[in-house]
């Protein structure tokens, strides 16, 4: 992780703070940044000592989107559709890895979160924003479809089809207050309290057992597409039986009865 050039990673006990680090370019995503995000989120799958990720952007914006002048757009010539598909799939792979990694991701949004930046927010598990945060699915404003990098799948599930259609069909901006009103962000906090809010929320999640936290994210991913209540209950029942057999469950019950903080042993 010390070889990254467009992102930074800070470890705070079991929490990692991932920061996009191209502030002069409003953290616009380049192919290099895409590859570094892929490497980071891929590594999380096996790094069980990291339990929660806080995802933020350095500078005055979270992420202004893909850098339009970068190599993300294949040069003309033979094989261009294939090369363009390869690049497109590199960007979308970030979203897949964010959803599949076992750690909950808490996004902190200040300033712009546009296009690719908007999709990075959608792929996070929980979002907090500052009053000046502005976000949009900018894709349709640059001559491509409004559904990109998971936005057509994730946004309707977060805010409903009507609001998602409004945003994806127009690319219009969503301010922090309305983002909270439609349930896209959990809260709007002052700039100087954004990181503190994220860390406090992460600490609250860290009170859960490590395996319980991981399986809850995994189960939510599965249940969002469950065909019905019977399938959902079947998945939940199996999750609970697995967790009931862990020593951390016994420790959590003991800590509750003894009115103390639990000490978990299993990663």
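^ structure tokens above, recovered residues below v
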């Amino acid at each position: 992780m010390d070889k990254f050039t467009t992102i930074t990673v800070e470890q705070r006990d079991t929490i990692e703070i991932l920061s996009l680090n191209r502030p002069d370019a409003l953290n616009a995503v380049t192919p290099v940044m895409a590859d570094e995000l892929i490497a980071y989120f891929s590594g999380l799958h096996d790094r069980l000592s990291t339990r929660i990720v806080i995802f933020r952007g350095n500078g005055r914006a979270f992420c202004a989107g893909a850098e339009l002048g970068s190599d993300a757009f294949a040069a003309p010539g033979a094989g261009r559709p294939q090369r363009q598909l390869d690049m497109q799939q590199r960007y979308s792979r970030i979203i897949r890895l964010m959803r599949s990694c076992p750690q909950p991701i808490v996004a902190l949004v200040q300033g712009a979160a546009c296009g690719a930046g908007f999709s990075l927010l959608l792929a996070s598990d929980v979002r907090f924003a500052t009053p000046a945060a502005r976000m949009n699915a900018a894709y349709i404003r640059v001559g491509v479809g409004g559904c990109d990098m998971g936005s057509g799948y994730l946004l309707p599930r977060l805010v409903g089809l009507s609001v998602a259609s409004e945003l994806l069909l127009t690319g219009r901006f969503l301010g922090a207050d309305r983002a909270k009103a439609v349930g896209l962000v959990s809260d709007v906090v002052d700039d100087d309290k954004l990181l503190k809010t994220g860390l406090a929320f992460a600490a609250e999640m860290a009170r859960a057992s490590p395996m319980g936290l991981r399986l809850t994210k995994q189960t939510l991913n599965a249940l969002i597409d469950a065909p019905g209540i019977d399938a959902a209950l079947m998945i939940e029942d199996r999750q609970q039986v697995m967790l009931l057999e862990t020593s951390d469950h016994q420790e959590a019950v003991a800590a509750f009865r003894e009115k103390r903080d639990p000490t978990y042993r299993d990663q």
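DSSP finds ten helices and nine strands in the chain.
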